[in-house]
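Researcher: Here's the sequence for the chain we discussed earlier.
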Amino acid sequence: MASNALFAEVATLAGDPARAGMLHALMDGRALTASELAHVAGITAQTASSHLARMVTAGLLSVEKQGRHRYHRLASPAVAQMMESIMRVASDLEPGQRRVVVGPRDAALREARTCYDHLAGRLGVALADALVAGGHAELAGDGGLITETGTAFLGKVGIDVEALQARRGTRPARILCRPCLDWSERRPHLAGAVGAALCAHSLAKGWVRRIDGTRAVAVTPKGQRIFREEFGARLG
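Model: Thanks. This is the structure I predict for it:
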């Protein structure tokens, strides 16, 4: 268990509005430069660099250098899970919240979005439901598994579960399949290595496409057909 001091340090880092804005901007799994994150947070590049250095030191962010640029990303899926949980709590505590009044961006985020590197929103929950209903996955509490029929089914749509299992021998090992409680739907979507592979495969195949400036993704007509006919997901 983490010490109280370390717990307080992580909470303080995530609790600052500017740093929270930068962490939220990285929730789609992509890496951004300090200047891009400064723009998101509405602060100077110098201030952003100071914030980013603290979060890298604490282990919330990782940084990689490519040419003259340094790119920052969330250090692990656990950091993304922490941010998703905080957003869920904040949503519940927001005073005077009126669910009937939501802007276009809010509606898009509720419909389909990325949660770090996996699919969330109504789409993510519908896919998780379909996999469970088809006997391809089992989700319970904070654990999950892909069944033999699930391995065969996912292989048919282009996701090699056995290859994902083989990669777990590397360090740090990643959980193959787990539920992630969706902050807008209040039900689980699929996370872990399989969830990440499903998201990446959906983007690569054109089943979903990113919407600029937001974590929301749009389901394409091709994706609508695949998710309904192949997965058996109930969309919209």
